Amino acid sequence: KAGVTQTPRYLIKTRGQQVTLSCSPISGHRSVSWYQQTPGQGLQFLFEYFSETQRNKGNFPGRFSGRQFSNSRSEMNVSTLELGDSALYLCASSLRAGDHGYTFGSGTRLTVV
Amino acid sequence: DAKTTQPPSMDCAEGRAANLPCNHSTISGNEYVYWYRQIHSQGPQYIIHGLKNNETNEMASLIITEDRKSSTLILPHATLRDTAVYYCIVRGIYGGATNKLIFGTGTLLAVQP
User: Fold this and answer.
1) At residue B95, does pLDDT exceed 70?
2) What is the pLDDT of residue B97?
3) Residue in B91, B3, B67 with CA at minimum distance from that of residue A56
């Protein structure tokens, strides 16, 4: 079966712009979570969604937001981009919230210039 | 969730067993131990999890000490493709389960030919 699909794979944006990243979970999975990975901070939890509801949010500024659609696909948005937002953004899906093993996508590499 | 401590790096000869240690001395009774790995430029991959008993699957074995304060992930016959950063994570499964994982810095396992 198809894995977690994240689009686009690579993205270059300018400071001050906004960006939207997409995540399509494994078919049947209803829980989606997002992580940011940078060399300095490592992997950090951004937020998670289940049945279109945000269940948990990490310690990130309000410029970072997300949503989940009725088909479980999820998007995350970053407004007013800063250089420090350059990172690999990873999405993970599972059948339910709190499942033991999640499947991660390959990520979107965002570069802010 | 309890904090984990792992060595920053380890080497292993191809074909030999790789034993990756993790200390989680503050683990509480309802917290599981999870292992994920991340091969360069890919998303993390779930390997195995356990609560009290030793666990084995097609990828690895997980040995948890009787006091649950430490664990060891064993890759029985390491190959070059097992070169990756291995993360040990402790997470509780409570009511209102969440998908939030707290990643540490992990152990970079280098499998040598």
Assistant:
1) no
2) 65
3) B91
